Amino acid sequence: MLNKKINTLVVLCSVLAGSMLSSFANAHPRWVLPSHFTISKEGGDWLTFDVTASHGTFVMDKPAGSETAQIIMPDGRQERPDFVLRGKRRSVFDFFFSEEGTHRVQINNVPGYVTHYKAGKRDTVKRIRANKVDRTNLLPETSRDISTTITFTRAETYITVGKPSEKAFPLEGKFLELQPITKPADIVATEPVRFQLFFNGKAQAGVKAEITRDGTLYRNQQDQIDVVSDEQGFIEFTPEIAGRYILKASHTAKLTDNPLADKMNASVHLTFEAILP
Q1: H helix or E strand, kind and range, residue 8
Q2: Per-residue pLDDT tens for 233-257?
Q3: Closest CA to 153 of 178, 176, 127
Q4: What is the mean pLDDT of residues 141-161?
Q5: Burial class (CB in 10 A: 0-12, 13-18, 19+), 205
């Protein structure tokens, strides 16, 4: 009995420690915002990036780290950022872009598990950060309607130096992914933009995406664009005004014969700009 209590305490401490590190980023949408989206300066240039987690469009709110940031170079290789700093409401990093072509900058979180259940006479829905194995020792005996979800979010943006390229676009074949059909450097206000969404490597229909322009703090309406992917996973929309935008797409699917989760919820948060026509 004593050993079981000790094991339960160890599991609970591990789960709580993990949840404390990731709770801020998981509770709020994360995004990465570059100082510029294109570089035309001969010889390249330094760019700086803000990373945070917030419900407001480009509002610095909760801390989100940049330590795992990756830059996918135009030839497909990966590089790490320079000068990573972490503050109370955001983290920042810099990188010198000199190679011609399109770069993908990404900060993907570590997959996490959350278990929802009902307990008490009022059927209150509660949650703990645990997978199907760990939840066994954590759930109260009276818990019911138990379901565990694996969650994963990609925060991405694209930087183009000179002529655009496509080698930074390949899919990983895992979770939800977005592939630009319209090249990021060619997104122009008043012109249609086309992306394609994939889930576990396959084109996914029915994925909901919302696109919001910068400046929501200074207008009464969100002016949000809502789209749903078609049978081939394509979404298309038209940004009417030049500026910076964030696209948030999410998809949930049931899992079968998975020892750790009952379903998966995966998201993509893409930051881009629409230039003046």
Answers
A1: helix 2-27
A2: 999 999 999 999 999 999 999 999 8
A3: 176
A4: 94
A5: middle
What CA–CA distance (Å, rounded) separates 141 from 199?
36
**Helix or strand (DSSP H, E) at 24:** helix 2-27
Alpha carbon dihedral 210, 213, 215, 216, in 10-degree steps, equals: -20
Q: Give the Cβ contact number of residue 245 at 10 Å.
A: 22
Q: What is the mean pLDDT of residues 9-19?
A: 41
Report angle CA 270, 78, 44 to the nearest 5 degrees. Answer: 80
Q: How far apart are CA 149 and CA 264, in angstroms?
A: 5
> CB neighbours of 221 closer than 8 A, spacing ≥ 6?
none
Question: What b-and-e string marks burial along 19-38, b requiring 16 or more CB atoms within 10 Å of the CB?
Answer: beebebbbebbbbbbbeebb
Per residue in 75-87, pLDDT (tens digit) is 999 999 989 999 9
Here the tokens at position 251 are 């998809």
Kindly give the pairing relationship between strand 208-213 and strand 225-228: antiparallel
Give the C-alpha distances (Å, rounded to integers) separating 181 from 86, 195, 220, 222, 272. 34, 5, 32, 26, 14
Which amino acid, 245? Y
Band of the pLDDT at 194, cuts 50, 70, 90? very high
Interacting residues of 160 by C-beta distance below 8 A, sequence separation 6+: 37, 38, 39, 101, 102, 103, 183, 184, 185
Residue 271 tokens read as 């930051």
Q: Are the C-beta atoms of residues 105 and 84 closer than 8 Å to each other?
A: no
Mean pLDDT of all residues in the chain? Answer: 89
